[in-house]
């Protein structure tokens, strides 16, 4: 039996009903789980004592949506809308597959940065070109296992050709360019489900903190039978059905042109909108969509920083919350953000919603932001029974912040100063499942300097190769930029205060 006692701490539990109130006292951890919170504990000789006077103890942060596939592309792109950015971050004309060692390092780097910034759980919407491979996904699991982080990990799937998942593409992209993309084989639904079942039998549950989740890329990129089969399997295995929906206006137009309805309505009509459904982005939802989402009690991963960098817009988070939708926070991938720090997302999300309307009572509070970054984020991962708050019986996923830092001088309000002032420099200790993974602001399980050195030595060659891939894909940019431009001129009925509007019209 292993016991750890955080002694004399200021405690922010984020438990339901706590309303952001802090406690003073001890937190006892035994065999990876929280035993008591706030009560005074008499130490025993075998306990590990962590003196926490002058420290704040709180739940580890949850990154509800990210992509480890992008980690090596940090700082590579700017001034690109999503439809253009995808050409370079997820190129249509692919290069050689990244080596297993670089795949491991890429995943590990994301986990390292996440832990250093207080993230104890992340949902990695991992995408691997050209397909789905058990050994390569096992490499991703191995990196997360070595880091000590908790993670939901996917092998994202799509089976509709890119040009058939975009509005206007077939009418404006030159035929010679279309021919470069057509003819690529698409995975069948039964093949993907068989792959997923193999992962559930081999990798799911690894280390007690790593799970597999089902992630069809987006409803317009997947056939209806694939969407329905993925959702059924997610329900059967009690894991998230994690997908991207209406991140951009182009995607809002796509739903109307392809299906004559919104993509949210399309998911609903396929029977794939419920408590298991976690939607990344949800920027261009209308009132009818929000009503469906609230009734389904689905979740949204709000990617406030990425949505701004890619020019996607601001999700209507206040109205989603009022409808009963669970909201978590995501960084998105590192090359559309360009960090893995959920604290940056928290501050951005707390600020940008001030422009969503003139009534300050409708703006998001620090408590709502912090809830989204902890218990709300855990609910998006279907892990709220495991983590997200400091309660007896839950996993000991804990971060300890030093209050003797600039962010807390002087100390006025714990939640507001975490959201508006903290940048991660106060995080002194991080624990996942009762194991300390960051101590005195240093990673415990990993030789950070050695990993950085290996990345400096090996990744430049990969990036040079990717530069050639970018050059090859640049031929598509004018046409994808035109798709983005045309979509921007379409009225998709997004008057969010007048209910569902008629079908689109050209301005």
Automatic annotation (TrEMBL):
InterPro entries: Amidohydro-rel, Metal-dep_hydrolase_composite, Metal_Hydrolase, MTA/SAH_deaminase
Amidohydrolase-related domain ranges (all copies): 57-437
SUPFAM superfamilies: Composite domain of metallo-dependent hydrolases (SSF51338), Metallo-dependent hydrolases (SSF51556)
Keywords from the UniProt entry: Hydrolase
Top-level taxon of the source organism: Bacteria
Family per similarity comment: Belongs to the metallo-dependent hydrolases superfamily. ATZ/TRZ family.
PANTHER family per the UniProt record, alphabetical: AMIDOHYDROLASE-RELATED DOMAIN-CONTAINING PROTEIN (PTHR43794:SF11), AMINOHYDROLASE SSNA-RELATED (PTHR43794)
Protein known as: Amidohydrolase
Source organism per UniProt: Ferranicluibacter rubi
